[in-house]
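Pilot study result, target chain (142 residues):
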Amino acid sequence: MRQQDIDSLPDQTPGVTPGGLPTLKALSKRDRTLWWLTSMGSNVVATLKEAFAVAPGITAVDLAVLTRLPDTQRLGFVAYGRWTRQAVEVGPWREPADTLRFLDIGPDVACSVTTTASGVAAAPKARLTSLPPRSASGTRRP
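Predicted structure:
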């Protein structure tokens, strides 16, 4: 899945002055990153639901998320994992914060996104490649 670049998000949000007039307030890097991460989670959940809807016979989906990394301006992996049909279907997906649960419901999920003031950063390559390869049956080999 290709996630929009964090640099493409607005850096201001609507607000109100103390006098009650409309204004634009600057978004902190942390709030902007959290907005982007919530957007990514929403797109991951939608992609998983769509995959299960169009292929009723499958029980799990492997998914990788690509985006342009702000520090290098190159495409890179920011998340990947495997999600089962059961885990996706039983989840309550009602609130925006629910979309962040995509990180918790998959058995082999890795995400390199940080929500610190420094914004989005890629994990070291070793972190994203730390899972052992899958066997033909789909299980992890030591």
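One observation from the pilot: The two ends are 27 Å apart (CA to CA). A full batch analysis is planned for the follow-on phase.
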